Amino acid sequence: MEKAALFPQAGGFLHGGDYNPEQWLDRPDILDEDIRMMKKAHVNTATLGVFSWSVYEPEEGSFHFDWLEEMMDRLYENGIYTVLATPSGARPAWLDAAYPEAMRVGKDGRRAHHGVRHNHCMTSPAYREKVRIIDRKLAERFGRHPGLLLWHVSNELGGECYCPLCVQKFQEYLAEKFHHNIEELNQAWWTTFWSHRYQDFTQIEPPFSNGEGSIMGLNLEWRRFTTWNMTDFMKEEIRVLKEVTPDLPVTANFMQLYPGLDYRKMAESLDVISWDSYPRLGNDYETLQETMAETSFHHAVMRSMKPEKPFMLMESTPGLVNWHPFNKVKRPGIHRLASLQAAACGSDTVQYFQWRKGRGSFEQYHGAIVDHLGRDDTRIFREVEQIGADLEKMARVTGTTVHAQTALLFDWDNRWAIQDVKALSEQTKQYEATCMDIYKAFLRMGVEMDVVPSTADLTPYRVVIAPMLYLLQKETARNLTSYVKQGGQLLATYFTGYVDENTLCYLGGFPGDGLSELFGVISEEIDTLYPSDRNAVRFADGTRWEVRDYAETLRVQDAEVLASYEEDFYAGTAAVTRKICGDGAAYYVAARVSAQEMSSLFRTMLAQAGIKTKDLPEGVEYHVRSGEQGSYSFYLNCGTQRAVIDSVSGTDLLRSKAVDGALTLEPGNVAIIETAQQV
Ligand code: GAL
Q1: Is the pLDDT of residue 678 over 80?
Q2: Is this structure's pTM higher than 0.70?
Q3: Cα–Cα distance measured from residue 636 to residue 665, given in angstroms and rounded to the nearest whole number
Q4: N or C terminus: fewer CB in 10 A for the chain?
């Protein structure tokens, strides 16, 4: 069954973004102008109500929704749909005054004062009740509005709370997880160390900044609990919305690789994945191509949470932000490049924060489509208008998806465990950067990669890379072993399989839980190099990779040695191995080398798997979306030179003309080539 576009009523991509008419209710002239200018900019969606609680309910129990109804009606009459947020991302003053338990307690044990946003206690029964009430009112009043497309739950849920209610909930969560058996917890967390044994679940505190921080299992479980509790809070909102409007989809906007929450757990309760993308485009420490490739990685993380359908780019800035270390404006054309990249990676929407700049407060200088100048002929307005026109030309792309045949394993639990582990070097652990580096290497070869958990169904993938998979979930080893036996090409690296899901080390050899049999090696030592230390590994054909940061020494059991170390006391010992296992192969790379260098091995694996690489000109990023209606190849020139791509044929959607032969792309330009071919 082919999938549909996320929002068929819109007839193509959603284009629009956060809109705060409640800040302008005393300026009907401006609200009129907004509608006129939205139409000019090809805007067909507005996200309303993200922070509207104090206008909806200025006093407890007194609700004012007429302005919203008027707004949604007018937008709809003008062809603009609404994404409606629940307002739980920021609280009115009366609420905190009446229910102080809604205000979060920090890691230092201090309760916050009223103010700012994204800082509620997730447990507070009083807050949950207030949120349920307003959500129900919104759903009952607007749930059947013909312009309403989607619920947007809260805003960028994040952070953690250490209040007494949360502490108690944590203890209850632990008691349930460890079967009300404190001995089981003591074992799992190795608490005899430093005399930290607990007698009762009520003795356990979360890792306060001046409290217990030395139990790795506790630290990890606190993060899992925070995700669980935040998801529970979110699910309570969703429950109310679904009770009233069972058929309306629900999303919650994610923040890139936000470390505080395991988004994959939250994703299970959402109908659509959406995220907010604010890359530091134009920075002075990497090329545009690199920054773009990182964003592409982030898109892949999001896409891979629900690969069967498109995702949403919920927020991006049309101009600049006000919170980067340096708030550089996007150069001409760059916003278009980034917006079309989102589409290339599988988004059915290009949305912004924000439609119009506010006059005051924290975000008064944050970029928007409409500036304080208030005109529709600014550079940024015109660029947005152009993107809107482009999206209309490529409407057929919506509903298609990206079909990656390779995957990178990336786990939040593993991330947390690596961040917390007292080993290696704090300066060079770099788990996320290591993953991204590998993703980028595949991108440069024109090979699409999903980013999935180690427990994912790996059967859609023919090549899987598992960098630094330090912590193994219960099912990971079994999953990887059966993947390889069934013909998969798998590569793992140093620092794999040291601990179980509670961060207890495996005994009898790393990688543990049966993985040393899969790879045919045991890692005996791991050496952390100083930043200027170097080693190298050499292959039989003379290929040499430079080693930095980490190098494991291996006991080779029954694997083939492909490369050995060149230097130091482990010179001549195995560094890269392969073991054929069933119909597949398990590679182990025992040291940190750049993904660029490792590409020679990636190419071998890809060839073995029958996946073609693409010879892309420098700077060009390539993605393919496909579905029943056809296949759409996106070429994005993120480089500084004109690029010529050979042997391209199909219809160039943005230029509405046929291409057959060489495709020329100026820097910053994009081509989307449609072919009839189905997948
Ligand atoms: C997002 C947030 C928006 C706005 C934006 C500014 O993280 O959801 O409300 O603050 O950042 O870049």
Answers
A1: no
A2: yes
A3: 8
A4: N
